[in-house]
Write a structure and sequence with these properties.
The chain is mostly beta strands and about 300 residues long. The chain is built from 3 helices and 17 strands. The protein is about 5% helix and about 45% strand.
Length: about 300
């Protein structure tokens, strides 16, 4: 069992056409949402700092590092909302140990992440990641809002959709491993984010270099998330090697409408939460953009809906 505190975790969420993505390993299936005549699934990039990561059997040995996790929203064979970890990027010195101990798809990368929880000004902040491509993000505190992609309900519904996923899966050494995680309700800061450069994420999904990436669906930041992980092997049946995806030989446009595939999906809704209006804010105009400071909003209480 592993324990850690994730700090300054930036959530970036996008909707991608399921037809453009490689099939997930069985028994997993994408959690599909019909929109604009085709099925879509959600992918999230989480950029954060691991703090005091340790095995419960060795509580004295603790360490921390920045990490970028790319994950896809899936349903497992029991219909439980889960995530498929596609790639985990971290400094070179820690990646081999993470692969050995946790069986997760860890790879080395250059990461430069800010500490928004230590900044009382509300941003803007910049995140940078580089591995066979770059990802650059600029974000600041703002009102809750939803962008491009299928509707998941209110802002609170969207937050619960991405956060309340107790199971994670990853392929390692030809086997599918399950990671169970739990954490208490945590504060959520709504953000406005701009992706200023993104050649990295398409490469992590094995999509063509010139893939047109869609606009953000939603973004927020959690200043602190205490996690407990339980590691376990789910399938001992070897997973077939990943074959080149049909999209690899052409440019993928995420507004292209491929023939719809007839795949069923199961809906899911989170537990009810009480909502309360956002705290007082102060606005400051700069370079034609609004920058607002929010008081931290409790995920247990919910956040305001715009």
């Amino acid at each position: 069992m592993l324990r850690t505190t994730v700090r300054d975790c930036l959530y970036l969420n996008w909707a991608l056409p399921a037809e453009a993505l490689p099939e997930p390993p069985a028994p997993l299936r994408y959690q599909l949402h019909p929109w604009q005549g085709q099925d879509w699934t959600f992918v999230s990039a989480l950029l954060f700092h691991q703090d005091s990561l340790h095995l419960t059997a060795l509580p004295i040995l603790r360490f921390g590092y920045p990490q970028l996790t790319l994950r896809l929203c899936v349903l497992d064979d029991e219909g439980v909302p889960s995530v498929l970890f596609r790639k985990m990027l971290m400094p070179a010195w820690v990646a081999p140990g993470v692969r050995l101990i946790t069986h997760q798809p860890a790879s080395r990368a250059r990461l430069h992440f800010p500490r928004p929880s230590r900044d009382a000004n509300g941003g803007p902040w910049r995140w940078q990641a580089e591995r066979h491509g770059k990802l650059e993000v600029r974000a600041w505190q703002d009102s809750p809002m939803l962008g491009e992609g299928p509707r998941l309900g209110s802002w609170n519904d969207a937050v619960r959709y991405f956060q309340e996923r107790p199971r994670g899966y990853a392929v390692a050494s030809g086997e599918l491993h399950r990671i169970s995680a739990r954490h208490p309700p945590v504060p959520v800061w709504p953000l406005r984010a701009e992706v200023e450069g993104n050649g990295l994420l398409p490469s992590l999904l094995d999509l063509p270099e010139d893939t047109r990436w869609p606009g953000l669906h939603s973004a927020w930041l959690c200043p602190e998330i205490p996690f407990v992980f339980e590691l376990g092997l789910v399938l001992r049946v070897p997973v077939p090697p990943v074959m080149p995806h049909p999209a690899a030989g052409r440019v993928v446009n995420f507004f292209w409408r491929p023939p719809q595939r007839r795949v069923g999906s199961r809906g899911w809704s989170g537990l009810p939460f009480e909502t309360s209006p956002p705290g007082p804010l102060s606005s400051e105009a700069g370079e034609g953009e609004r920058r607002r400071n929010f008081e931290p909003l409790s995920f247990r209480r919910g956040v305001g809906v715009r």
